[in-house]
Amino acid sequence: MRDISVRVSSLVAAAVISLLIAAVAVLSVLVAGARGDLADHDAAAADTRHAEKVATDYAVGASTIDFNNLDTWVGRLKTNAAPTLSTRFDATAPALRELLTPLKWVSTAKPIAAKVLSVTNGAYTVDVFLTINSTNIQNPQGALATVDYSVTVDKNSGWQVTEAGNDKPFPLK
């Protein structure tokens, strides 16, 4: 039988090296997890910005009207709209023409702000605020108004607009 002798300093060095290897392994796992979390956060922030841009572009297009060229306006209403929303505009376009043409309605819109209110299964509900300058036969000098649109943008459908309108009640006097 042979006796094996090991110096205490060698044991201490081996223990320290083992602890350093374990610490590096744990830190590597934590850093990899943090990078994944950061990448997820960056992707979510980019999706939010994209939804806000799509919703803003849609609301501006929907609010920019010229009674002399209503086909262009209806086209903007249908651009990037989901088929169900586009079909609704096909159904309502004749009535809108009958309303806007005699009024000689012209309006332009400028975005103020947009904010994602909620995200459900890839559908982003965005509040879009616009300043609208409109003229018509009742108000030929023009009038400015701030308008709030609620626009739903579906990431899972190629960022199509699935709903647009204003479902908020009018303020009470």
Q: What do these coordinates show?
A:
The chain is an alpha+beta fold and 173 residues long. The chain has one domain: Nuclear Transport Factor 2, Chain: A, CATH 3.10.450.540. 50% of the residues lie in helices and 31% in strands. It has 3 helices and 5 strands; from the N terminus they run H-E-H-H-E-E-E-E. The protein has a 5-stranded antiparallel sheet with strand order 1-2-3-4-5, with helices on one face. Strand 4 and strand 5 form a beta hairpin. Helix 2 runs antiparallel to helix 3. The longest helix has 56 residues. It is rod-shaped and about 110 Å long. The model has no long low-confidence stretch (mean pLDDT 89).
Structure summarized in a few sentences:
This is Mce-associated membrane protein. With 173 residues, the protein is α+β, with helices and mostly antiparallel strands.
Give me some keywords for this one.
173 residues, alpha+beta, Nuclear Transport Factor 2, Chain: A, five-stranded antiparallel sheet, 31% strand
Q: In order across it, which strands form the biggest sheet?
A: 1-2-3-4-5
**CATH architecture assignment:** Roll
What radius of gyration results from the CA coordinates?
30 Å
- The geometry reads as rod-shaped
Mean pLDDT: 89
Q: How many angstroms does the end-to-end distance come to? A: 102 Å
Portion of residues in helices? 40-55%
The number of helical segments is 3
Oligomeric state of the chains? single chain
Instruction: Bin the strand percentage.
Output: 25-35%
* CATH top level assignment: Alpha Beta
> SSE string, helix = H, strand = E?
HEHHEEEE
Domain unit count: 1
The largest pleated sheet is described as:
5 strands, antiparallel
Count the E strands.
5
Poorly predicted spans: none
Protein name: Mce-associated membrane protein
